[in-house]
Amino acid sequence: MSLKVGDKAPDFNVSSDTEGNISLRNFKGKKAVIFFYPKDNTPGCTKECVQFSESIDKFTSAGTVVIGTSKDSIESHVNFRQKHNLKIYLASDSAGSMVGAYGVWVEKQNYGRKYMGIERSTFLVDESGVIRRIWRKVRVANHVDDVLEAIRSM
User: Fold this and answer.
1) Cα–Cα nearest to 12, from 30, 21, 29, 24
2) Among 6, 62, 144, 145, which residue has the least CB neighbours within 10 Å?
């Protein structure tokens, strides 16, 4: 089953590098941007996380939390945060329960080789836990601006 706009966002309980375990319930009453990225310290993922971090004040003033999620370990997230001065939540879904629930664990292909990996995706969830916007196969350029515009139009 693929999630769609209007669906209740799946709750999750995953480790965070700064807050211990976090879940969607922790942020009830706030909007949430939940974005999934393949791997810490890779060019596109780093750029995406840095851009969300650079705009964190705009998200915060709009009553929105930003959660970047990958299957990387907490240790990897800690190093990633420190190296790039990240200001967003980083969630570690090493077991794959969250990426599975959101339907972003997909078959990918690179140079003819097929493998399973995270599809770069973003979900905008409203204060009551309903998905209001979904971006799949995200291109990093201008993505943060698109997400902020969607929040402003809610």
Assistant:
1) 24
2) 6
